[in-house]
Write a structure and sequence with these properties.
With about 150 residues, this protein is mainly alpha-helical. It has 2 domains: about 5-35; about 65-140, no CATH class. Helix content is about 35%, strand content about 10%. It has helices at about 5-30, 50-55, 90-95, 105-110, 120-130, 135-140; strands at about 75-80, 110-115.
Length: about 150
């Protein structure tokens, strides 16, 4: 009987290991093999938040929620692309939503801001840095449109 070369043995062993690994994983997912409790996810059905009085810090006043009415701010209108990302919630809350609203921090400090959700980095880049035109003279002669902020 002919012997297998070392490369063939390696690939056969690799195939067997991969099949066993994915076979056991599929069996666990379908309930054929019991799984340990650590693999089960826990979904909270209800969360009780503490009262606002307990969350207050000394010398810090709680701000009221901004209204839904749009603010009339005389400042230059700025547009800002944002991701749907938890770190952006402070900015969205300070603005009162996609557009500056009455009672928001942006209105208080005279900022006229519109937030636009954009999940594509390439689209954000294209908005901020427009592609150069084919003719540099045409680009110099044409007035530049205001760029959108990120």
């Amino acid at each position: 009987m002919p012997r297998l070369k070392p490369q063939a043995k390696f690939f056969l062993i690799l195939i067997v290991v991969v099949v066993v690994f994915f076979g056991l994983r599929a069996a666990m997912q379908h309930g054929l093999i019991p799984t340990p409790g650590i693999m089960k996810s826990i979904v909270a059905s209800r969360v009780t938040l503490p009262p606002q009085e307990e969350a207050q810090v000394a010398n810090v006043q709680a701000m009221p929620y901004p209204s839904a009415a749009p603010a009339n701010v005389a400042a230059t209108h700025m547009q800002f692309d944002v991701w749907e990302w938890n770190a952006m919630y402070a900015l969205i809350y300070a603005n009162g939503g996609p557009d500056t609203t009455k009672g928001s921090l942006m209105e208080k400090y005279g900022v006229n801001l519109t937030l636009h959700r954009e999940d594509s980095n390439s689209q954000m880049k294209a908005t901020f840095w427009p592609a150069p035109s084919s003719s540099t003279t045409a680009r110099r002669a044409a007035p530049r449109a205001p760029r959108r902020l990120w």
